[in-house]
């Protein structure tokens, strides 16, 4: 009930902001920087689309900043935050993917008078760093939900493919997965991917294949991003029965869910994360308003029962992260 009230309030606020005369951003108005992942990933393309729509609705300037080199992801995020502050952004919406590296800069931005909203990653740190709010999914709950669904499908030994080892968000997903599977008498093996593997589809497929070969008892794979689910399907091959599930959406994943090759995908609605991140920052700057709890955008489960409906929304490219 509390979540419904929060989301309804945000929706009403959004509606109130969009009844103004449409027009270009006011050059002397608010500037919001959004710092998240590379746009080659359809997940972050959807997040950017949401931020762009919020900026258009609220008539503010929005700059999307993303690391150019995933191998130095944490360091790049720190640099981009420093640039956003130096370039005069009034508000900053960003993912706190590596707290040990990013939190000092986030605290410094808040101390410098910037309004900061954490999006996509940072539920465990948003209050400690002085952020105005957090928008995203409950990562532990996401993993637990996935574990329960996999156990119901008969999986007992599941490989959790972690493409961002060290990130609280992915760590919590694998942990929640393990909690649910252990409750069902199963177990989880985590496969951490080095950045060189995570950004190379062939290397990802080989890593998953190697883990499956090393442990013939594995009967499930849970990936933490849509592209990794597609590589998992290729790694398994037709001769072995391994149940596959994932977080996040792509057209390939949705088609595989629809056709029964992937059990389900957990959607955290990145479009809403981008939209609400900008909205909350602007409302804080303009009126001193702030949410008093995390704003949840997930987890939502897409399975064979509703995958076709979500695929139909592909005509609205960039909304569900499906590409």
Automatic annotation (TrEMBL):
GO terms for molecular function: carbohydrate binding. Keywords: Signal, Sugar transport, Transport. The keyword Signal applies. One of its GO terms (cellular component) is outer membrane-bounded periplasmic space. The keyword Transferase does not apply. Residues 32-286 form the Periplasmic binding protein domain. Its main location: other. Residues 1-18 form the signal peptide. It is found in: Cell envelope. Coiled coil: none annotated. PANTHER family: ABC TRANSPORTER PERIPLASMIC-BINDING PROTEIN YPHF (PTHR30036:SF7), D-XYLOSE-BINDING PERIPLASMIC PROTEIN (PTHR30036). Belongs to the bacterial solute-binding protein 2 family. This is Simple sugar transport system substrate-binding protein.
């Amino acid at each position: 009930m509390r979540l419904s009230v929060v989301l309804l309030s945000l929706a009403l606020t959004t509606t109130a902001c969009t009844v103004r005369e449409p027009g270009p951003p006011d050059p002397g108005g608010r500037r919001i920087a959004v710092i998240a992942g590379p746009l080659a990933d359809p997940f972050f393309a959807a997040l950017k689309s949401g931020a762009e729509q919020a900026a258009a609705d609220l008539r503010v300037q929005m700059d999307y900043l993303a690391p150019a080199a995933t191998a130095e992801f944490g360091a790049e995020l720190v640099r981009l935050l420093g640039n956003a502050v130096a370039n005069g952004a009034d508000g900053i919406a960003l993912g706190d993917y590596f707290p040990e590296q990013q939190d000092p800069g986030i605290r410094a931005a808040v101390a410098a008078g910037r309004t900061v909203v954490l999006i996509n990653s940072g539920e465990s740190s948003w209050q400690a760093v002085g952020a105005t709010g957090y928008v995203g999914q409950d990562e532990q709950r996401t993993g637990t939900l996935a574990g329960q669904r996999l156990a119901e499908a008969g999986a007992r030994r599941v490989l959790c493919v972690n493409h961002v080892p060290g990130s609280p968000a992915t760590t919590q997903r694998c942990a929640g997965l393990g909690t649910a599977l252990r409750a069902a008498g199963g177990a989880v093996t985590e496969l951490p991917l080095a950045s060189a593997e995570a950004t190379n589809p062939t290397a990802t497929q080989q890593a998953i294949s190697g883990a499956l070969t090393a442990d013939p008892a594995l009967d499930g794979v849970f990936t933490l991003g849509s592209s990794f689910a597609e590589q998992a399907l290729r790694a398994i091959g037709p001769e072995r029965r391994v149940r596959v599930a994932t977080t996040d959406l792509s057209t390939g994943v949705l088609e595989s869910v629809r056709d029964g090759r992937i059990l389900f995908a957990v959607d955290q609605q990145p479009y809403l994360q981008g939209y609400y991140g900008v909205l909350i920052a602007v409302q804080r700057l303009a009126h001193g308003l702030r949410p008093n709890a995390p704003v949840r955008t997930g987890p939502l489960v897409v399975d064979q029962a509703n995958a076709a409906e979500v695929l139909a929304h592909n005509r609205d490219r960039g909304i569900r992260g499906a590409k």
